[in-house]
Structure formats: C-alpha cells, structure tokens
C-alpha cells in the first residue's frame, strides 16, 4: 500500500501571485487513480489565464500545470491498465470509454472525466495535495507543477519507453489541440485560406492539409520565423496596421478567409475572427480558454449568411483512442513538435516561464523536474 509522499511543488497562493516552491504532501492514489512522478511539464496559456483569474480566488492555494509526461509511481485499487514504471502522458480531459458521450463517436467531452473546474478530483471531489493539513487545489485534475501528482487512470495515456518525455508532453494539450482543431473540428480542405489569431500548431495542421494561404496574426514579430517553419505563409502584426485587422484579412482573401481560428482566449477576438472569415461557408473555430468575460457577441446576420462558429476543446481528440496515433505520427516525423519548444527551464525557474509566456516571448516552455 502506497503512503503519503512529501515533495516539491510550485504552489500559487493567490491569483497572479508569484509561485512558491513548497513541500507538499501527496496522498496515495484512490480507487482507479494513479500517482505519477512527473518528468516534464510544459506551460500552457490556460495555466496563465486561470492563475490570473481573480474570479476563482477561492480555489487557492493551487497547483497548476496540465501538460505532462511522467512515470507511474503507484496505482490505486481496481487499476488494471497501468503498472508501476509505465511511462504516461497526462490529459486534462479524460476518456472513461463507457459514458454516453464516449460511446457517441461524436465528441471527446467525456461525461465522467470532463474538464474539471472545481480544483478537485473527479471521483470524491476532494484534493490529493495538502500543506501541513491544509488542502491545496488541483488544476484540471492534473496539477503537474509538482514532482508527484495523482490523476484518474482515465486521464492518462500509456507511452512506449523510447518516446522522448521532454517533448511529448506538448501532446498533452497545446500541440494536439491545434492539430485537432484544424483536422477534426474545422476539417480544413486543400487550397483553402486560413487565418490564425495567436500562433500555434493550428498552422501546422493547416499546412499538412494543403491550405494555400495561412495568415498568422500576432503582436510579437519574434514569433514569425518560428511560425514560418510551421506553415504560416503571411504574418500580420495588428500594431502595424492602421485599419481593423478583419479589413486587412478581407482584402488579402477576397472577402474573407475560409477558416479563422481564435487561439488566444480573448472573446472580443472571437468576433474579430468571425468577421475575418467569408460569408456563406466561412468557419471560425475558437480554442483559446477565455481570460475574463466569457460572453461572445456576434452580428446575427453573419450567422444567417451561413458562417459557423465552433468551439474546440483538445481538438476533438479522445485521449485514449486517438493520442497513441498522434504519438506515432510524431515518432514517424509526420508531425513536428520539437520546434514549438522555445525554452527549457528547471522547476525552480517556473516564474521565469510564466513571465516569458505572459510577455508573449515563448511558444512553449518545458519545465524539467529535478532528477
Ligand atoms: Zn466517458
Ligand atoms: Zn493547455
């Protein structure tokens, strides 16, 4: 029987407050859970958005992080899929494989292990972390900014031992989400025009589908060179434009792009993205997690014209069913992940990673746990 582990974790004590390395107690895994020794975890914009979210101040102290690779340290009662020593990828939306949604073939929104917003584990609605008896909240039921964490066995995917742990963690969220938004949700067709607000792997997904024009919109020109490698063909910095960005896009695309993607989590930008795609069949896919106001406004006439607005969480991928295919594509070099990593930092420098991402200075920063 596993016992409590005391280890280092980067704890956020309040919204927007610098993270502090603390000794935390990590409970043994309960039934159907596994405890994982995290090896690498990458920082995602949604970690930042939720860390800054003052509306959730009751969910602190909290351990963020949801893109991670690690090794199973112990397994809870009833777990047959994993053994101690297995390499795993954690995922922020699980797949129970048995609920109505998992069986539908239409969605990856598992009804049992869906996006966890209360800072606790899905099962008993309690935390597995504490500091001197005080509970520490989880994030997305993953909380990977800790040397050890507990996840539901439905929120982990087994990896072969030869998969590089320091890069594959990106498939936990960011890299997979962008590819899935392009392939599963938008289903981009060959020769089409695409505009992407906030650069990321959507561009690679568009390129691999044969899009002819892929416009990246971002305020940071330093990202352009990296973005080009992923398939961005035109780069627009809104700060350099003296007319609304949607007008620029309309001019470049003869009336609007076939597809537009909002990857930032700015709901005003969703309206801009909708205005940037063409009447009739234009499709806007939104995959950013909203920072503040979650309301979206759009002129009804745009929808009457036939435009569609679709949301994409984890790119429509069902983790257990689909992630092994993406991992194989990565190993085959059919998809590129390594180039997305602009920084590698140890856990103790996690605040630097937050700062880099907040300032838009990095695409992905991988945090390495102490050996
Ligand atoms: Zn399910
Ligand atoms: Zn993420």
UniProtKB/TrEMBL annotation:
Span of domain Alcohol dehydrogenase-like C-terminal: 202-322
Coiled-coil region list: none
InterPro entries in UniProt: ADH-like_C, ADH-like_N, ADH_Zn_CS, GroES-like_sf, NAD(P)-bd_dom_sf
Keywords (A to Z) from UniProt: Metal-binding, NAD, Oxidoreductase, Zinc
SUPFAM superfamilies named among the record's database cross-references: GroES-like, NAD(P)-binding Rossmann-fold domains
Needed co-factor(s): Zn(2+)
Superkingdom classification of source: Eukaryota
Record-level GO cellular component terms: cytosol
Subunit structure comment from the entry: Homodimer.
Name recorded for this polypeptide: Alcohol dehydrogenase-like 6
Organism annotation: Zostera marina
